[in-house]
């Protein structure tokens, strides 16, 4: 999924894409960089990440990210499949967000009591 936005306040497109196994290639703005972690490889072995980000938004940077994604897809198919499986298992549900908010608020309350 190519998302070369210059402005993206929320970023639901990449969440839908990842849910269905499409790896996002997006400019690192707004909600896109909040929800896409850059793919990291160690000696061509998938380590972590959920997509490809580029900055600043330009045709050259978009093309460079597409080339990185294509390299993994074409030359390291098993690693690509691991990435797809990992991305499809990510949980962006409100239950995860709610736990994070509760933890943040609890920490703030504890700090104020100190």
Notes on the structure:
- There is one protein chain.
- This protein is α/β, with parallel strands linked by helices and 114 residues long.
- The chain has five helices and five strands, in the order βαβαβββααα.
- The chain has helices at residues 13-19, 30-35, 59-75, 77-88, 94-113; strands at 2-3, 25-27, 40-42, 45-48, 52-54.
- A hairpin with a 2-residue loop joins strand 3 and strand 4.
- The protein is globular and about 55 Å long.
- It starts with a strand and ends with a helix.
- 20% of the residues are buried.
Question: Which labels suit this protein?
Answer:
3-stranded parallel β-sheet; single chain; 114 residues; globular; Rossmann fold; two-stranded antiparallel sheet; alpha/beta; 5 strands; 5 helices
Q: How many domain modules? A: 1
Q: Which range does the strand content fall in?
A: 5-15%
Q: Strands of the largest sheet, in order across it?
A: 1-2-5
User: What structural class do you assign from the helix and strand content?
Assistant: alpha/beta
CATH architecture: 3-Layer(aba) Sandwich
What is the CATH first-level class name?
A: Alpha Beta
* Span of the ends, CA to CA: 47 Å
Q: Order of helices and strands, N to C?
A: EHEHEEEHHH
Low-confidence stretches: none
What is the share of helical residues? 40-55%
- Tell me the Rg in angstroms: 16 Å
Fourth-level CATH superfamily: Glycogen Phosphorylase B
Major β-sheet profile:
3 strands, parallel
Q: Based on DSSP secondary structure assignment, what is the total number of beta strands? A: 5
CATH topology: Rossmann fold
Mean pLDDT over all positions = 92
Principal-axes geometry comes out as globular
